[in-house]
Design brief:
Membrane topology: Multi-pass membrane protein
Number of helices: 15
Family: Belongs to the TAPT1 family.
Protein name: DUF747-domain-containing protein
Pfam family, one: DUF747
Keywords: Membrane, Signal, Transmembrane, Transmembrane helix
Distance between the termini: 28 Å
Number of strands: 0
Length: about 400
């Protein structure tokens, strides 16, 4: 897995984000709106096909019966990871253009694109399965958006930094004008995304008469993936990303994307070192020693950073595992409560409305109109993932 990730990140080194930036920035507002939507569609398509490619690569059945096909599947997986990481890079560039625009036209366009989700989701009929898929899509979308906005803010801080190790601009001490300029678009986009998601889910549950306790069951399903130890024949060898698969979260391409951006950020930090051009150059031996010392410092920083990230990952994994076991211990009581709650009438429905609903259901649900031996098509929530076709893909 690590070799696969490093190979994808190494191939991304040859990309030119500056060319992407100027290519996207030169477009007008309408084309940028189309770019946003096209990249969103490409992200969903790559996630869907990427899950199948990775399942085929790490399948226990294929590894035991057809080990000679491993290089082919590995090449396909690397091609997929690089392609999906390029989609993430273009999303970052487009978001960077919108956030760092001189006027607020592009930022307003980005916010309006978010509010279009309300129009496309609220005035439609949903069931619990579709609501679960929407929730999974919103979780992944919000995480990716916050990650990209954090990267944009960090890049802006690096560009405004005064020296090689000044991670905050000098204006942080004198005033907060530059910090407000950097973080205000980021905060606005994040808050607007959260507001859109809250409104969308609030009106969906209102119109569909779905009780908010259903979100607790969604948490129980995701927690069950974290504590599940079942290993079936033909299942992927690595069962750790089971919750990621259910959410539709592409971890490997996103990891390669983060590595590529981190390498570029380190290059920006090294290029911003303050050197006095008027000073006399040291002797060659001292100059080589300074270069070696600088590389040693950067290597030490990378090792310490990797150890810190590893410690955070372990602590976060332990905390999530404890939370998942706690949720699973109380899941039975919540299911019993949900069953009792479902026996009640929907919110805002009186006795006459209930009689009309039952009468309409009897007329519309006669077995005479059904095809003989037709599948019902209902998938239990415990077996549902984001990219299972229920009504549409979110």
């Amino acid at each position: 897995m690590l070799l696969f990730l490093l190979t994808s990140a190494f191939l991304l080194i040859y990309t030119e984000p500056s060319r992407m930036y100027h290519g996207v920035r030169g477009q007008d507002n309408v084309k940028l709106y189309v770019i946003f939507n096209a990249l969103e569609i490409a992200d969903k398509l790559c996630c869907s096909i990427g899950q199948d490619i990775l399942d085929s690569l790490f399948s226990r059945t294929r590894l035991t019966q057809k080990p000679s096909t491993t290089p082919i599947y590995l090449a396909l997986a690397v091609i997929y990871a690089v392609a999906h990481s390029l989609v993430f890079l273009y999303q970052l560039v487009a978001l960077n253009v919108a956030v760092n625009s001189y006027d607020n036209a592009l930022l307003t366009l980005l916010l309006s694109n978010q509010f279009v989700e309300i129009k496309g989701s609220v005035f439609k009929r949903f069931d619990k399965s579709s609501l679960f898929q929407i929730t999974c899509a919103d979780i992944v979308e919000r995480f990716q958006l916050m990650l990209m906005l954090t990267i944009i803010a960090c890049r802006n801080l690096i560009e405004l930094s005064g020296s090689n190790f000044a991670f905050l601009p000098r204006a942080f001490i004198r005033s907060n004008t530059q910090l407000e300029t950097i973080f205000s678009p980021v905060v606005i986009v994040i808050l607007s995304e959260m507001a859109v998601d809250w409104l969308k889910h609030a009106f969906i549950t209102k119109f569909m008469h779905i009780r908010p306790s259903i979100y607790g069951r969604f948490v129980d399903i995701l927690a069950g993936d974290l504590v599940s130890t079942t290993k079936k024949i033909g299942a992927p060898v690595d069962l750790a990303p089971k919750a990621s698969r259910r959410l539709g979260f592409a971890a490997i391409p996103l990891g390669a994307f983060v590595v590529r951006v981190a390498v570029q950020a380190l290059g920006m930090l090294s290029d911003s070192s303050s050197i006095d051009e008027c000073a006399t150059l040291p002797p060659s031996a001292l100059q080589r020693g300074a270069v070696v010392m600088q590389w040693f410092v950067w290597l030490l920083v990378c090792v310490v950073g990797w150890l810190v990230l590893l410690a955070i990952k372990l602590l976060l994994g332990i905390r999530l595992s404890a939370f998942a076991h706690h949720r699973q211990a109380e899941a039975v009581a919540r299911r019993t409560e949900d069953v009792l709650t479902n026996l009640q009438t929907p919110i805002g429905e009186g006795n006459e409305d209930k009689d009309d609903r039952i009468r309409s259901k009897q007329h519309l649900s006669t077995r005479i109109d059904d095809v003989p031996n037709a599948p019902t098509g209902k998938i239990p929530l415990e077996e549902l993932s984001r990219y299972d076709m229920v009504k549409r893909i979110w």
